[in-house]
Amino acid sequence: MTRTEISNGTIRLTVAQAIVKWLMAQHILIDGVETRICGGGFGIFGHGNVPCLGEALYPVRHEFPLYRGQNEQSMGFAAAAYAKYHLRQRFMFCTASAGPGTANLLTAAALAHANRLPMLMLCGDTFLTRLPDPVLQQLEHFGNPTLGVNDAFKAVTRYWDRITHPAQILQSLPAALATMLDPADCGPAFLGLPQDLQGWAYDYPTAFFAHRTHHIRRQSPDETELANAIAALRAAQRPLIIAGGGVQYSRATAELAAFAHAHSIPVVETIAGRANLLSDDPMNIGPIGVTGSNSANATAARADVVLAVGTRLQDFTTGSWTAFAPGAKLITLNVGRHDAAKHAAQPVVGDAKLGLLALGAALGPHKAPADWLAFAQSQRRDWDTYVATNTAPGNRPNSYAQAIGVVNALCHPQDRIVAAAGGLPAEVTANWRTLGLGTVDVEFGFSCMGYEIAGGWGARIAQCEKHPDRDTIVFTGDGSYLLMNSDIYSAALTGKKLIILVLDNGGFAVINKLQNNTGQPSFNNLIKDCPTVTAPFAVDFEAHARAMGAEAVTVATPAELAEAFMRSKTSPKTQVIVMQVDPYEGWTAEGHTWWEVGTPQISTNPQVTKAHEDWEAGRANQRPGL
User: Does some domain include residue 589?
Assistant: First the structure.
């Protein structure tokens, strides 16, 4: 039956057609411009989604783009990066077939969940009728025929539903969108779509598909919680602000800067909060934590009141809760109650922008002591000197830091930087000097290898919607490249140019470093240290990238990297620049706090025992988990 408007105010559509039509009717205002909330989707078709959802997407293919992925996991990474670029105001859907195609999305869903990012998954499911059971790719649970692969997503989504009747989407779709737009509960949503039900027709109310413009809620803080926070800030002699990724999602970077300047309170940034302030802002004392800076960590260690804004206080931020003075008072301004209530903090549950404005108004002309700010700024000057030396080319082995310094010196202030997992998040966080607000995406919420190139592709799709004349620059190691590189091909196919730096250190060098730091000999991380490797050889990353449609070059020195990078800026095609870096030397040696990892209490290796004792000594400053 064709789609038919019915006189009683209904329209007959299949479930798949209704989902697509509804998504296309949802809009949002961004900077005064109305746009569709869902920017389109990423899809790999299979028997579980192509007959019905594919049919529904085809007629709108030019206005509601569907990007063909190479791997379902990387599609999810791209969707997460797209949402992050748009500060959670827009999202993409991902569609996968039943079975392994859907299972491949699990890691991406976990990444979006950990980072509080919206992403809609529309995935095939087994037949409601069960007439053809067991079907292709079905997992049979003998005592529970309703249980399948899709149930695994309950652990990694904020909203999960299996559609069992066509009318159900009248409730489920708005509920999923409300979750994805909620500043406190934001995260991925999953809809399991049985293969037969996708094609079932139903008379839907036409009002369901009416054009609708949504907004993202801003929650004002509670007056009592504000009053308690204000009292603590007024009494503080050494206050500090920790600025997290929530500052950007609240679009509160201007309010953060204004608040810090008005009250002379130094600011340190989390990994997710990198690029909340420009590098040369005098209130910016640097990144905090395990992969932070001496300046931020020295300031945090002396602070008597810490105002944490828009951060979930992950262990890399808190140094596993050793970064603060034992008696420091913690105030948490966060839209999420769960994050605001951590570690016996004084919670201020509410929007970061409204919260900072309210705190600022109540504090009036109050300023922190001048000598406190002077101390923090002197620490930052010392850190800047270290970074300048650490990133400078010199008569030493190639390093991540040197590559970062080259790109930092030559990129445009509005270019977007993408990195994830391995050693590069630490090196980018510590050494990158922010040139433009909100331009750094270091995925460390889930610390997921393979995000880099896929996330770069998703970020570039979003960037082309706003600033196509700027570049998306990806830093990746050889380990992550080998794990997931197929979106070089995606970028080439779709004309979404990336500049990708592949920094080859011969394996998983950062974990080798941790292995050595805990007293163990190198084992199974660097290729040359794998007992099962009988014929090690170097991967020709340049040739591989060329085979996927990129322009590629291998360079030997930071000077050659600079020349290649400048050439890459002028080309319209995706660029891959390969440089070997030393796996042992050149790591950023400063700026680290203690980090809790499990070490053996007993070992036949005396170096492991000694490392355990040394490691445990750092626990003396650990804040109790109250």
Answer: no
